[in-house]
Amino acid sequence: MKLKKIVSVLLAAACVFSLAACGSKESSEDSSEKETLVMATNAEFPPYEYHEGDDIVGIDAEIAAAIAEKLGMELKIEDMAFDSIIPAVTAGKADIGVAGMTVTEDRLESVNFSDTYATATQVVIVKEDSDITGPDDLAGKTVGVQLGTTGDIYASDIEDATVEQYNKGFEAVQALTQGKIDAVIIDGEPAKEFVKEAEGLKILDEAFTEEEYAIAIAKDNTDLEEKINDALGELKDSGKLDEIIAKYIKADAE
Ligand code: ARG
User: Fold this and answer.
1) Mean per-residue pLDDT for 93-111?
2) pLDDT band (50, 70, 90) for residue 86
3) Does 42 sit in the ligand 1 pocket, CB within 6 Å?
4) Is the CB of residue 164 below 6 angstroms from any atom belonging to ligand 1?
5) Which atom of ligand 1 is nearest to 102's Cα?
6) Alpha carbon of 4 to those of 9, 14, 83, 143: distances in Å?
7) Domains 34-117+214-253 and 121-210 alike in fold
């Protein structure tokens, strides 16, 4: 009886020891075996995604990282042109597209969208001394946009306007500073960031539209869509989502 007890204590100790040893070995093996969640984005869109040194940071990067963590997956971010994101998702080269991407009817024909995680507006940026005072004044003007964005789509509907498409939103803003174009239509938060960095520009009070951002997922990947919505729901409920957004968008900025 006594011997049995000693043996079992020893066995337990051995187990604890070997488990600990195995555990740490396993976890390092685990991380290399973790399934990757590939996120396609266009990191030219602060505060949602932008480069900081070698890293891609921002609201979307952090939301995706939090989702990946909940799914026990390893997040990998692929930076590409904005209009390549949906093709990457439909081709299965990326699992998700997270890029401050607005849910539109058109896009819903190629991909599914998760529940929305942010609301946004399209705004007009002009020079401080511009005679353009609202979206209605854009008729006949030269308007800069980021290629393939909703701003691009709205601009193409403006009467007699010439639309200049740029690969990056900031390039459109630079062209405006240089007097090459009359206005830029772009999402509200990036607009604030770009105007902060430029000289002599302002954002018009009257916004163009209200939009909603969501995560693009391949139509046949309903399993992932469900998991992402669950994870997003948890991030909303726990306050983590608001926390991430508040980190990048100061409520009383300006
Ligand atoms: N919300 C706009 C759209 O969906 C612009 C998004 C641009 N995003 C980016 N990461 N460059 O078209």
Assistant:
1) 98
2) very high
3) yes
4) no
5) 4
6) 9, 15, 69, 84
7) yes
Q: Where are the domains of the chain?
A: 34-117+214-253, 121-210
Q: Is the CB of 122 under 6 A from ligand 1?
A: no
Long-range contacts formed by 4-7: CB under 8 A, 24+ apart:
none
Contacts of 85 (CB under 8 A, 6+ apart): 40, 41, 42, 94, 97, 99, 101, 216
Q: How far apart are CA 178 and CA 34, in angstroms?
A: 48
Q: Is 166 in the pocket of ligand 1 (CB under 6 A)?
A: no
- Going from the Cα of 83 to the center of ligand 1, the distance in angstroms, rounded, reads 9
Please report where in the chains the tokens 């976890």 appear, as a residue: 27
Measured in Å, residue 70 CA sits from the centre of ligand 1 at 25
Closest ligand 1 atom, CA of 49? 10
pTM beyond 0.90? no
Q: Indicate if ligand 1 lies below 6 Å from the C-beta of 187.
A: yes
CATH architecture label of 121-210:
3-Layer(aba) Sandwich (3.40)
Domain at 34-117+214-253: CATH code: 3.40.190.10
What span, in angstroms and rounded, lies between the C-alpha atoms of 92 and 206? 39
